[in-house]
């Protein structure tokens, strides 16, 4: 399983990546999670990344490529990985291809999640995150057992600072300009599959695992 989950903010990439990682025992590499961890720990990378993330802008390619390179080269990724939120630009996609070819491997599938914009806005407005274990909830679709508290670790849930309405609009615009071109890029390489991401988490997961199995990418 060497796959990329592609799609606009809030389509459910992180939610599905988490389930795939648990069921197929493959590491999930989420650049958003890694960057948020760096911001929380106030590392040099985190301080640099925060100014971009708070405005909904992309963190510079060189920074993100370095993070992914370090992860993909770890032994735990030798049997595969699930990339969530990377690549996001054509430059990142080309660097990923180079990284993999150095280890004699290549991507097996890129899954592009399609969800109507009004549903994306609904999902992001109601998303709540655990700042400690990164678990993701939704106030209506996937509520925690106790309001505002993480089911997994008991930490108080928070709303991501970039889920504010105006920042969401900026992120969607950036997605359209910089990331959506990857759809044609991967289609041209015969790697793209489109997935209907509208429906419950279970229904979407069933579609996703079926699609991956059909392409021998599980
Ligand atoms: P990142 O964290 O990657 O954000 P994103 O791509 O905008 O995606 P999201 O995490 O918002 O959404 P998702 O698709 O994972 O949805 P989720 O599963 O959470 O990036 C954040 C920032 O970091 C970027 O803006 C940028 O600054 C920087 N960055 C990251 N990667 C970068 C890169 N490669 N290059 C440059 N900069 C980078 O679901 C959303 C909500 O919906 C949740 O509440 C969930 O419970 C709910 N939900 C999920 N599925 C369903 C369903 N089927 N039905 C109903 N509700 C659902």
Description:
The chain has helices at 13-24, 31-40, 44-53, 61-72, 90-102, 117-125, 165-179, 181-188, 201-214; strands at 2-6, 28-30, 81-84, 109-114, 127-129, 136-138, 192-196. It is an alpha/beta fold and 218 residues long. Strands 2-3-1-4-7 form a five-stranded parallel beta sheet, with helices on both faces. Helix 1 crosses helix 9 (201-214), helix 2 crosses helix 3 and helix 4 runs parallel beside helix 5. The longest helix is centred in the C-terminal third of the chain and has 15 residues, at 165-179. The model has no long low-confidence stretch (mean pLDDT 93). BIS(adenosine)-5'-pentaphosphate binds next to helix 1, helix 2, helix 3, strand 6 and helix 9.
Question: What layout of secondary structure does this protein have?
Answer:
Blueprint: E1 2-6, H1 13-24, E2 28-30, H2 31-40, H3 44-53, H4 61-72, E3 81-84, H5 90-102, E4 109-114, H6 117-125, E5 127-129, E6 136-138, H7 165-179, H8 181-188, E7 192-196, H9 201-214
Parallel strand pairs: 1-3, 1-4, 2-3, 4-7
Antiparallel strand pairs: 5-6
Helix pairs in contact: 1-9, 2-3, 4-5
The structure holds BIS(adenosine)-5'-pentaphosphate (AP5).
BIS(adenosine)-5'-pentaphosphate (AP5) binds at residues 7, 9-15, 31-32, 35, 52-53, 56-59, 64, 85-86, 88, 92, 123, 126-127, 136-138, 141-142, 162, 171, 199-201, 204.
Q: How confident overall, as mean pLDDT?
A: 93
What is the number of beta strands? 7
Largest sheet strand order: 2-3-1-4-7
User: How far from one another are the termini?
Assistant: 5 Å
The rough form would be described as globular
Q: Helical stretch count?
A: 9
What fraction strand? 5-15%
Spell out the helices and strands N to C.
EHEHHHEHEHEEHHEH
Query: Over all CA atoms, what is the radius of gyration?
Result: 16 Å
How much helicity do the residues have? Answer: 40-55%
Give me the secondary-structure category. alpha/beta
Report on the biggest sheet: 5 strands, parallel
Which ligands are bound? BIS(adenosine)-5'-pentaphosphate
Contiguous runs where pLDDT drops below 50 for at least 5 residues: none
């Amino acid at each position: 399983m060497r796959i990329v989950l592609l799609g606009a903010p809030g389509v459910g990439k992180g939610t599905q990546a988490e389930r795939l990682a648990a069921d197929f025992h493959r590491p999930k590499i989420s650049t958003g999670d890694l960057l948020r961890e760096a911001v929380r720990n106030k590392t040099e990378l985190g301080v640099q990344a925060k100014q971009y993330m708070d405005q909904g802008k992309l963190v510079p390619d060189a920074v993100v490529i370095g993070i992914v390179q370090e992860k993909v080269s770890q032994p735990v990724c030798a049997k595969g990985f699930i990339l969530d939120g990377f690549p996001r630009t054509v430059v990142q996609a080309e660097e990923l291809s180079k990284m993999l070819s150095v280890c004699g491997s290549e991507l097996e599938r890129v899954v592009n999640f399609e969800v109507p914009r009004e549903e994306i806005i609904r999902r992001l407005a109601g998303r709540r995150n655990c700042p400690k274990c990164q678990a993701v909830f939704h106030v209506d679709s996937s509520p925690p057992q106790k309001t505002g508290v993480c089911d997994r670790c008991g930490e108080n849930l928070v709303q991501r600072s970039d889920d504010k309405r105006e920042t969401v609009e900026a992120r969607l615009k950036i997605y359209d300009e910089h990331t959506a071109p990857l759809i044609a890029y991967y289609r041209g390489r015969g790697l793209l599959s489109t997935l209907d991401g509208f429906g419950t988490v279970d229904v979407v997961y069933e579609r996703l695992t079926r699609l991956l199995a059909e392409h021998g990418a599980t």
